[in-house]
Amino acid sequence: xxxxxxxxxxxxxxxxxxxxxxxxxxxxxxxxxxxxxxxxxxxxxxxxxxxxxxxxxxxxxxxxxxxxxxxxxxxxxxxxxxxxxxxxxxxxxxxxxxxxxxxxxxxxxxxxxxxxxxxxxxxxxxxxxxxxxxxxxxxxxxxxxxxxxxxxxxxxxxxxxxxxxxxxxxxxxxxxxxxxxxxxxxxxxxxxxxxxxxxxxxxxxxxxxxxxxxxxxxxxxxxxxxxxxxxxxxxxxxxxxxxxxxxxxxxxxxxxxxxxxxxxxxxxxxxxxxxxxxxxxxxxxxxxxxxxxxxxxxxxxxxxxxxxxxxxxxxxxxxxxxxxxxxx
Length: 328
Prior knowledge:
Layout lengths: L1 E2 L5 H11 L26 E5 L4 E5 L2 H12 L3 E6 L2 E2 L25 H8 L7 E4 L8 E4 L2 E2 L2 E7 L2 E10 L18 H20 L5 E5 L5 H14 L7 H17 L3 H12 L3 H13 L25 H4 L1 H4 L5
Parallel strand pairs: 10-11
Antiparallel strand pairs: 1-8, 2-3, 4-9, 5-8, 6-7, 9-10
């Protein structure tokens, strides 16, 4: 979780325009964009195109960018809000206003100031002084904390949210924000870091939303390397007729038992339908990315000139706890 710093009146107005309330789908705007102008100077920011939402997802670290791939891989995900502010005052549940939640009674968010007050951390809530344009004198306003990824998912019980807070290693949850100067008092630094995470967790828990601490070092490296390579080209499969794509999926799934190389299937289909091989390769990537073909993705790198292996571990089962709704 990051904290907005050096907030001016114009910046505050822009935050409110973008996020009060947040929009859905392609209209959503993150509080902090992954651009040179807005991202923290030492961050490894990136924008990743997400077909399902028809927009780029903005991440501010390599860990966020990596973990984002897992969220996008889950077909139960129907919305994602990255770099979303924690409202300082009470606000409706994040699902409020979405068609999937139209008939559901939703608990409210009580706001970060209320959370800090209940935790005894009110002195840890950030504030800034604003100079109004009318020259009436400076006044203090609360500054928003900003989260990493808020996931919107659906299961048999309906829609729900899960909040992901992401670090590269577990120890980073006890450290100050990236780019901060070394702390004069390390114990105080740990206390401050833990209090920030406690604030975020209670903020979302008020609305029945669990917070998951995601550590990049816990990830299966071959799986995420496969996801990156599949994502790069899978979108081009949208140019291929549905019937051809279905045939490729069926033949790829059958090849897991026969040991036939995906390349042989793709060459055959390309020759029969006069389809560029690059588009056949995109269909191969989409078939695995969208789980239309179930093959092993966690053991080693997947290549079109090597037979696919039967799925031994389902990634969404391996990481199921990261997507679990709040236990009752």
